[in-house]
């Protein structure tokens, strides 16, 4: 008994220290081991009382640590969540501004005559919000050209790579183009009008997109081994003719009435025939003709 009383106060000090550090460092299993270690001390009753008070105040130690971890993780994720939410709101505002400009153009306004206040009023934002996304209306127009061009180029490349034979590939590509025009008629009315009447910056951007269409088409035809005897320059010229036909036909398809499907089918068939004629001419093209280019046209019947 004397031996135990000799160490009672030091043991109680250890217990108090361990209880104090419990919430920081000791798991439930560690605490259970701690109880077993000091179960034979004279102050075990005093220890048990303090232990029960801790349990009553904090609950299951393991659960406390799990909750603490969840709280820390939740606190750490809040800034990231708020940042993502701000990015989404900013992107939504940008899209609203672009859609507002397209809506105004679709209602008959000229894009070059649109003012920033007019666009922001249609988008439902304050005028200062415009400058967080675009410096000028031309910059907004450039974003519209790029977005429309990227999507259509991707769809047409997928259509050409569908491994369809000859005329079927042409018809499928034309169908993809016409369907895209219908689904994005505002974008293509804007591009069609600005192609010849817009600002210099927009006209240049549209020419660049047309060049992208041409080069990607030539690259795909080369990969598909179509017209293998033609040089890259000649193949690119042929593709530029097709892309020009595509751009010129856009307004015709956009103006087609929904209640006259027969006329639209005829337009589509004529477009396919025009592309087939270009390809037939390409198939008989000679890189180094032996005579005049028009010699074949002058032959007697």
Offer a few descriptive terms.
301 residues, Arc Repressor Mutant, subunit A, Tetracycline Repressor, domain 2, mainly alpha, 3 domains
Helical amount: over 70%
Radius of gyration: 37 Å
List the domain count as a whole number.
3
Can you count the beta strands? Answer: 0
Low-confidence parts = 1-30
Annotation field: number of helices: 12
Query: β content, as a range?
Result: under 5%
Shape: elongated
How do the SSEs run, as a string of H and E? Answer: HHHHHHHHHHHH
Specify the biggest β-sheet: none
The CATH topology annotation of the largest domain reads as: Tetracycline Repressor, domain 2
**CATH C-level of the largest domain:** Mainly Alpha
Task: Tell me what you see in this structure.
It is a single chain. Helix 4 packs across helix 9 and helix 7 packs antiparallel against helix 8. The N terminus is likely disordered. This protein is mainly α. Helices cover 77% and strands 0% of the residues.
Task: Give a short overview.
This protein has 301 residues and is mainly α. It contains twelve helices and no strands.
């Amino acid at each position: 008994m004397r031996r135990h009383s000799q160490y009672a106060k030091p043991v109680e000090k250890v217990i108090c220290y361990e209880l104090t550090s419990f919430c920081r460092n000791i798991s439930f299993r560690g605490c259970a081991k701690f109880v077993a270690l000091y179960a034979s001390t004279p102050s075990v009753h005093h220890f048990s009382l303090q232990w029960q008070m801790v349990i009553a105040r904090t609950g299951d130690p393991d659960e406390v640590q799990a909750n603490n971890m969840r709280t820390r993780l939740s606190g750490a994720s809040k800034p990231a969540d708020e940042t993502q939410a701000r990015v989404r709101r900013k992107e939504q505002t940008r899209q609203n501004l672009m859609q507002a400009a397209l809506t105004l153009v679709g209602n008959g306004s000229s894009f070059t005559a649109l003012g920033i206040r007019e666009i922001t009023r249609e988008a439902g934002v304050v005028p200062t919000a415009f400058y967080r996304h675009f410096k000028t209306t031309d910059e907004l127009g450039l974003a519209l050209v790029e977005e429309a061009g990227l999507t259509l180029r991707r769809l047409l490349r997928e259509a050409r790579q569908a491994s369809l034979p000859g005329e079927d590939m042409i018809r499928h590509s034309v169908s993809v183009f016409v369907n895209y025009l219908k689904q994005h008629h505002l974008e293509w009315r804007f591009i069609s009008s600005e192609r010849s009447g817009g600002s210099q910056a927009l006209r240049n951007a549209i020419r660049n997109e047309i060049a992208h269409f041409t080069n990607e088409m030539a690259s795909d035809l080369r990969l598909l081994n179509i017209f293998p005897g033609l040089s890259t320059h000649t193949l690119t010229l042929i593709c530029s003719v097709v892309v020009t036909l595509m751009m010129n036909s856009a307004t015709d398809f956009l103006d087609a009435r929904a209640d006259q499907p027969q006329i639209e089918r005829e337009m589509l068939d004529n477009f396919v025939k025009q592309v087939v004629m270009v390809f037939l001419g390409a198939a008989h093209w000679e890189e180094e003709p032996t005579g005049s280019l028009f010699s074949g046209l002058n032959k007697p019947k």
